[in-house]
Amino acid sequence: MELSLQAPFWTSSLFWVLVLLFGAIVLFVRNKIRMDVVALLVIVAFALSGILSVNEVLAGFSDPNVILIALLFIVGEGIVRTGIAYQVSEWLLKASKNNETKVLILLMLAVAVLGSFMSSTGIVAIFIPVVLVICQQMNISPKRLMMPLSVAGLISGMMTLIATAPNLVVNAELIRNTDFRFHFFDFTPIGLVVLTMGILYMLVARRWLTDPEEQTKKDTSRRSMNDLIDEYGLRERTKRLVVKKGSPFIGKNLDELHLRSSYGLNVLAIERWKRFRPMFIAALGTSEIREKDILMMDSSHPEFDLEQFCQENHLEMAEIRSQSFSQQAKSIGMAEITLVPDSDCIGKNTSELRFRSQFGLNVVGVKRDGEVLVGNFSDVSYALGDLILVVGDWKAIAQMQHHAKDFYVLNYPLEMERAVPAATQAPHAVFAILTMVVLMVSGVVPNVIAALIACLMLGYFRCVDGKSAYESIHWSSLVLIVGMMPFSIALQKTGGVDLAVKLMLDAVGGLGLHAVLMSLFLLCAAVSLFISNTATAILMAPIAITIAHQLQVSPMPFAMIITVAASAAFMTPVSSPVNTMVLGPGGYKFADFVKVGVPFTLLVMIVSVFLIPLLFPF
Asked: What is d(CA 412, CA 417) in angstroms, rounded to the nearest whole number?
């Protein structure tokens, strides 16, 4: 759209698009209104102004990338529910020896390498739950690791030809207009340098993201399972007994063994090895004992001769390992409950209530008047005010809320957030994710269809259910992306992008080649603040190649600077879906991205402007 010389600029559509853009940025920075609400206000403003049609304003809701991001949140939920996220987090913590610096380095390396062969959005979505678990286990703020995650995701786009769409767009433009083309690993040297810079930079910048008091803040309102174990003295009472060949326990269920009534022994859980890893099974009355099972026993009789009992029943005592309780917490949990006034359970004991049969839970401790009852408390009648410690499957514990007329769950321990309801489906989840990755890398189907296939597989294999799938989607992040998309259409429709390009060409036409590269990087980075990096590459690639032709030099360094600048979308949470995805889980504000992203973008620009001509001479 050409601007009339007679008409004042403030009457043009471009002027009002810029006003809306400035207003949105101000609201983002002030952080008084939720960012997704600001995005909805943008949609309404564009629709009422007449600058865009309703179809153009709402185009984001049908954008495949928005659907892809939603599907990838579900994939991430499948990774959490099957325990894969916790296994990866434990590996990272073990490899880094609980050192935050080593965690950050390994995390960024893993994300950058994996993101080189699949969608950076996908890999970030997969690692978000992993990072949240790591932060919880290390008691650090997610702010310190979520932004390194997004930075590594963006840098992964600089590693290979297929790593991100802008690379493919620029390569297609090269092939169309020149005799040059990029090869698969042409990007890798630049990506490795930027990755090294990114790791070193984030080791420093993470300190800018957390207030001192927030960094050491801990949730003291909720106790952990270890707190409850120590409080009720379970650690000293718990034994691990291995069922040996020839044991009379084999083939019988717990109700048939009468261990509680005859010996004062209470089976808390059954540890059973399957596919070279331990599984913890809730101890129900119908649970059948198998050879080589490991029984987690609670012995309430201090004088009980456990060695004699083991000899008679072909059992072997095993060591209580420090990680036994934490491993068990992924599937078997505990909670304190208390009786409500007028409950029919007042005055009855555990046997009369048939606690394990009726509720699927084992009573392992009773506290009365602040004192833990010792000895065999199974025959003790419950009184109002008693605190009852129960152990069992997390689902059974959650079901206690449906028995509100008799019991009230005082609070759930912190480990409930780490419950893994579909641990046995982990191999199926890995298969579904590998299928998605192969489909994305091969390009057999569009990325959004690959993700949809993976989600359907996760649902079919019961890795996720409908409720958890819908609840896993960060709707506010999706609304933010959809609300910012109209700016892309409006800036192109009103001539804003064309005007910016013309001004840039007039300004740098007579300067040196390095200055031209720097100007292209700056303009590309500036444009990608408001429109997607793929759209930015589409607009900027022809300009960069044309400039190279006019200057009679190789187009390769000019094309490469566009790909690097398009991936260097570190400056705002709306610059890239990768940033938007970590915005909520990391608890960031708009200013956090500006504070960390702007210096790093400038650093990448300086290094790229001098490194790229060395790799791709003019």
From this structure: 9
If one counts every other C-beta atom within 10 angstroms of the C-beta of residue 203, the result is: 15
**Average pLDDT over the chain, rounded to an integer:** 79
Q: Contact, 310 vs 241, CB < 8 A? A: yes
Q: Average pLDDT, stretch 34-45?
A: 84
End-to-end CA distance of the chain: 34
Return the closest-CA partner of residue 39 out of 528, 477, 576.
477
- Read off the pLDDT band of 322 (50, 70, 90): very low
- The alpha helices in 97-187, defined as continuous H runs, are 100-115, 120-138, 143-155, 165-177
Q: Whole-angstrom Cα distance, residue 326 to residue 90?
A: 11
Residue 57 C-alpha from the chain's centroid: 30
pLDDT greater than 80 at residue 69: no
**How many Cβ atoms sit within 10 Å of the Cβ of residue 451?**
28
Residues 483 and 60: beta-carbon distance below 8 Å: yes
- Compute how many other C-beta atoms are within 10 angstroms of the C-beta atom of residue 213: 7
Q: At 371, phi and psi to the nearest 5?
A: -115, 135
Distance CA 184, CA 163 (A): 10
Overall average pLDDT of the 239-243 stretch: 85
Is-contact 544 532, C-beta < 8 A?
no
The structure tokens listed for 141 are 């703020």
pLDDT per residue over 116-136, tens digit each? 766 677 678 777 777 887 887
- In the chain, the percentage of residues whose pLDDT exceeds 90 is 11
Burial of 529 (C-beta count, 10 Å sphere; 0-12/13-18/19+): middle
Which one, of 579, 588, 613, lies nearest residue 155 by Cα?
A: 579
Residue pair 288/280 in contact (Cβ under 8 Å)? The answer is no
Dist CA 518 CA 362 (whole Å): 68
Pair of tokens at residue 413: 């321990």
What the block records as the tokens of 526 is 């500036």
Q: Is 211 exposed, middle or buried (0-12, 13-18, 19+ CB in 10 A)?
A: exposed
Comparison of pLDDT for 162 and 353, the residue scoring more: 353
Whether residue 364 contacts residue 389, with contact meaning beta carbons closer than 8 Å, is answered with yes
What's residue 117's pLDDT?
67
SS3 432: helix
DSSP code at position 288: B
With left for phi above 0 and alpha for psi between -120 and 50, is residue 317 left, alpha or beta?
Answer: beta
Q: Which two structure tokens, joined as six digits, stand for 149?
A: 């995650």
Torsion of CA 84, 85, 91, 93, to 10 degrees: -160
Instruction: State percent of the chain over pLDDT 70.
Output: 84
Extract the tokens encoding 581.
């995805």
153 versus 574: which is more confidently predicted?
153
Mean pLDDT computed over 283-298: 83
Cβ pair 246, 314 in contact under 8 A:
yes
Q: 222 is written with which tokens?
A: 């909720």
For the cut 60, the answer to whether the pLDDT of residue 213 exceeds it is no
Angstrom distance (rounded) from CA 598 to CA 592:
10
Q: CA-CA distance, 239 to 266, in Å (whole number)? A: 10
Here the tokens at position 490 are 């409006």
In terms of DSSP H, where are the helices of 238-284? 254-257, 259-263
Q: What pTM value is reported for the model?
A: 0.61
CB-CB contact of 476 with 495 (8 Å)? no
Rounded CA separation 157/145 (Å) = 19
Place 4 in a pLDDT band, splitting at 50, 70 and 90.
Answer: very low
